[in-house]
Write a structure and sequence with these properties.
Layout (H helix, E strand, L loop, with lengths): L4 E9 L5 E10 L9 H17 L4 H10 L2
Amino acid sequence: TSIGIATLAAPVFDAEDRPCAAVAVVGSSLRVDDPPDAELLAQVQGCAESISAELGSQAWARGRQAQSRT
């Protein structure tokens, strides 16, 4: 097995809920699993959500509400 690069990213949204940036983790494929570890995924998404909220976006909160209804 060869060692490669793996990434995990989540979008950051601006005040109009448009994607404007991303939070990403880049590392060895030995450390970033596919599928990703639930805790690492939650941390990356939480960071993106916090930055989005600072920019005035509610996109992450609305997405979570929509998921809870399904």
